[in-house]
Records
---
Amino acid sequence: MQTFVPNPQIKEEIEERLENKGTKKPVINLDELWKIAMDRVKIDVSPTNFNSWFKDLKLIRVQNGEAVIVCENPFVKDWIEKQYHKKLKKIFTEITRRETKIILTAPNSSIEKKNKEEEHPDKRYEGNYLTVEEAPIFNIEYSHQNYYESSQQKAGLNPNYLFENFIVGDSNRVAHAASEAVADNPGNAYNPLFIYGGVGLGKTHLIHAIGNRILNKDPNKKILYCSSETFLNEMVEAIRTDKNIEFRRKHRELDVLMIDDIQFISNWEKAQIELFHTFNTLQQANKQIIFASDRPPEQIEKLTDRLRSRFQGGMVADISKPEYELRSAIIKQKSQDKGISLPQNILDYLAKLYDDNIRELEGSLIKVSSHIHFGHIMPDEAEIAKILGIDPASKQRRFTSKEIIRAVCKEFNVSVRDVRGKRRTADIVLPRQVCMYLLRKELDYPLERVAKELNRLDHTTVLHAIERVEDKIAVDDRLKNRVEGVTKE
Ligand code: ADP
Ligand code: MG
């Protein structure tokens, strides 16, 4: 087993903070909070811009939903006000988890003077805070920043989301293959590409990877990544300021348009109309369109039929819950990338605990490693669960695919061989369909995997089976009870 030797200075500091037990997190000082905020800024501000504008700013107070920042001179203050005010507000609101007003001030202003008088000697910050690793990557606001260094930043892309560090398994294989095909042949492989799946499963990572690859090949390609919310906000702003033409041009003259969390677009009728026209213009010009969503097009409510059919008109690929092998491979890579070395048994344990969200899995890695680092002790599994604040019993998978199939066969009095075999008599077809239905519903397997488990050729059979079972259950209480009985069993 490895031992961890923390830097003695850090250790002392941490012990001091841990004495302050009442709060959830150790109390930090403002400089540390500022560092967390600046690490966030660095994600989407170029090094040159960072050094020019942020390096010499000072955070002097965070209290009652206000963050006071001193700028070195009035010129910098104005610039920050114009270019980065919104970003800072967003970052502070996110990391402190409360709506935060940003107050920029120049040196020797009355605010600063007053603050000096009141200031706590060690500038303690006692509120909540999220570190960069804990906080979700936020959408980069394309429209409010016009000073970019790289084409990646200009496109709103996170340069760290690449195919090279995206790990492929059964649950994301199809989505990954489709994304690579699109990245290698934008506009011609699948158009649009529509990726859907639950939270934290890698949709955003994949679509950024497409953008990054296209830009790496040709930095002149015009790419835009935005959320459906940003799309709407900009549209509203354009209408308000009479800049419709610019708005349209910005979106309709792109080589690649990517809209994340597209499911929200259905809330806004006008945005749907605008998107419809944008879509048509781009598609007719052979330009690539990519969407990510938490559900498939047919399940987005209030979506107009014509947009729905556009969404379905190319490739629709899902990412389902990651299988254990994939989670295990991901956590291994992430720990290497972050320079965290944890023993294999702990990595395995984390991969077992977090079975439906890669972002949470990643977060757990950081939490556990910092705990070990600070505490200097290697925790066992029960302690890890405690650190992570979870009940391991409730996290365990309830059953395996084999158990489900066996239970269904028992209920319907057929053999596993028959359900996985070729016969198509009614007494076998129904349990076979129920198996597919339950594998999908209970284990959230991708369609391809369900097909494989039951020895079927392709996923359309599975889709059909699930629909049949759903239809039947809706009208047949006896069947419904039997299926529920199997789950209970
Ligand atoms: P989503 O958009 O589906 O909510 P994200 O793309 O934001 O999820 O992914 C959440 C986190 O998990 C990111 O840090 C991402 O890098 C990571 N992640 C998800 N899937 C994979 C994968 N297959 N390989 C490596 N990292 C992954
Ligand atoms: Mg996302």
Note: The chain is about 55% helix and 10% strand.
---
Amino acid sequence: MVFMNIVNGIPVSNGCRKGRLFIIPDRNETEISKNSIKPSEIEPQWNLFLNAVQQVKNDLQSMSDSDNPDEKKIFESYKMMLEDQVFIDEIKKEFTSRLLNISYIVLTKYRKSAEMLIAANNDYLKQRADDICDVYGRVVQILNGSEKHNFDNIPQNAVVFAKNLQPTDAVALEKKQPLAVILQEGGPNSHFAILIRNYGIPAVFGLSAFPKSAAMNDEVIVDGAKGIVILDPDKTTLEEYSKKEQQELSQSRRLSALKKQPAKTKDGFVVSLFANISSPEEAQTALKQGADGIGLFRTEFLFIKENRLLTEEEQFLAYKSVLQTMKDKPVTIRTLDIGADKIIENADYKGLDEENPLLGWRGIRFCLDNKELFITQLRALYRASVYGKLKIMFPMITSCDEVEIILKLVKTVKASLKKEGLPFTEDVPLGVMIETPSAAIVSDFLAKKCSFFSIGTNDLTQYSLSVDRDNSKVSSLYAETHPAVLRLINTTVKNAKKRRIPVSVCGEFASRPEGLMLLAGMGIDQLSMSCAMIPAAKDILSRYTATELEQIAKKALRTNTALKINEELKRKLDK
Ligand code: PEP
Ligand code: MG
């Protein structure tokens, strides 16, 4: 008999869905059972292995079809590993003598080789170990029936379950439109989570107790708002959730009516609501959802989607398209914020595989060290500037020094465009993201150097509380309402107002009910969020007067723990 099983996790994206489980095997820890085989199975299994090797070679070939010589070199070396006859002979010897399934033999063999290379404690050999794991890991995944990045088999009505997924996977998953996504690990503010919310897919992460016995096609209910997953639901639960789905539908119809209304508090204080987007196509959705403009275009996802660097022309067309779609509405485009979990796999930037990437080569640091790439993006942005109301924003700023270098580069870019006779808007507002504690603390200085601030609460919270936003083990410590975070936000707002420059918030906090209350209460009148969240945000704001919100924010700023602040906010929301 099968019993209903309720598994608790972290709420990531709202919505209740009932569907069938689709399990994505973990890439890094593929566990393959050891099975004995009969001598008659040697030949067919060996042929499967050779075919898998060939398939990986073909995949690598199509990935290396580029003009980039460095890229070509890497894929060539990968191909050579697959053609290493000594290694292949060793696999064959072990396979035929031990009479064990080929996938098990290949897995143990490449892992052993990688361990030996790692033990040599040499950076070059460590890199080779990674390469072997990557190349032969692909072979094993094919043998095991699960190719890397292959979501082709996801059926309709699937609830996708995986150990953890990356932003690149979100881009691929969107095409399959699963009913919901559930992860064993992952944090609610990871880039993967942000994208999934953007796509309006309900999600629950951090399901550490998800039973190993769960199988493909099991019936499952996902409650994104509560952060629970119910396996093999009983009849009463199924009925309860059918009702919930109906309620959600009528709620979304009610919110739909708000799309065309401006966002206002009960007493008419207007708050501009902008959209966070990660592709030019989403600009259309932003308009449909009633956005007042684009508050954050995460341009790195253009590159991640293509899995390569984009040319100036390609970027120009993407930026131009967003500006044209949004017409006279402002569009804030952020320069590349790659590094950490946002990696462009086919761009050969050695050094992005760092020990501690969140504190490493990310965002503006990476761009200022790769000036050619940065200048290409600035040129594309300025060329697109004549097609709408562009604002350019820089991520991961920590000091005025960085801003000064940026301003010099901008000057050079403008001068060269002028020389080439290419039109651009002279006075594009240049702003910085306030997403590191240092930037918030020196925001009085920064305010003198730029035209606007946008507060990135996702990173600001991560860095001020030392809590990895992607790690479910510490996600209970990740609190945007921590007094330290609220003080940094308040300092930034005050410094922006003193200097009379606009300040907005584009982190996920801006779309949560508690965030909306506190941020609007602190006097922030520009908030940017996932397109899907805009109507609900209008609804929340319309329930309070500006004075009420101001009082709520003032009280929160006087309170010493996130717990107490959250309790108070919950009371206000439930009222
Ligand atoms: C942020 O850090 O709040 C932010 C908006 O940037 P991202 O989520 O892309 O890191
Ligand atoms: Mg950020």
Note: The chain has a mean pLDDT of 91.
